[in-house]
């Protein structure tokens, strides 16, 4: 959902045509992508479907937990100090009476304690069964309240059991069920459709000369999930304007996405139709190009129906860097998550300057150092495949031993989140693993 009309600028009041403005820096582009969206409305979902979502409203206890006094042991509910006459289970007890009770059973009216079966013995007294303490019973077995779980021991009616902002796990769901909830109000996740373009792209086997293998289709859905989105439809089109227009308009009868990601077609040649298709649909560009490499021709647009369109470059590494620059903060904003700032690690190598643009370089994290990977050209994936994150090297470059901004990749162990309640806003922290298996703190 669009927060406001921000057209290619870094200010809410900026309406300067994109082509007349310099491309925003990497950090400006990330902030702009975050600021242009407002959180999606929350939704009520069944308990079993709520795992992995962020809770939008507190889960409270409808009644005391437990809501009745229950036995903590198998044995007998007793009234008084004994011996006791055995009576029918479930009936109120008079002084000197006892009745069989199981763990979790309702403690009958009049019972002051539960005598566990290991501590009691039942004998035929001639006029009926009689319960008494065993000679070796532990002291205090008949004290008032012994082996009874009182009502409200776990929570009182109205207590907050799970606060809003919690990332729900199975234990939270079990607790909500115990409290009597059937559905939970959660922050909705954005549904993300994908449009894969390029008539030269093949989806299986070894590509012939002039063809390229599809690197987006098999993995984009997983990355979308790791960024908190819900993968939607995936459509393949050629390079014609008509195909672009139809794809961005949405398949007839399909569930509407919140975000559409396109691959390729973000250049400015006669065969690149992203901008023309967006304009024909009444949309406008929010961001057109970023001063970074790879991924400079990344584009972000808004459509009249509230959808966002992220245009990724056609080269695989460039596309992934563009997705982390624009897509990650946009999806975070739509989920009411905080803006993820870059941390800093010490650079393990010199990186030469690249005037006017940030260099995004896949890297590995070793003992608090960030080492740039090899094989990191815009069309390469080998370096990214073994990386922990990427360095955002400023235009002036960086020398070994100097701090450098870094971001983890969403499929690595460095991409961890600790959720705490802060009103309706979830707070996130990130840790970096070192080779010893311990975690070094992320320093923002």
UniProtKB/TrEMBL annotation:
Q: Does the keyword Metal-binding apply?
A: yes
Q: What is its EC number?
A: 2.10.1.1
Q: In which pathway does it act?
A: Cofactor biosynthesis; molybdopterin biosynthesis
UniProt cofactor(s): Mg(2+)
Out of the domains of life, which is the source? Answer: Bacteria
Identify its protein family: Belongs to the MoeA family.
Protein name per UniProt = Molybdopterin molybdenumtransferase
Species the sequence originates in: Paenarthrobacter aromaticivorans
Q: What is the lineage of its organism?
A: Bacteria, Bacillati, Actinomycetota, Actinomycetes, Micrococcales
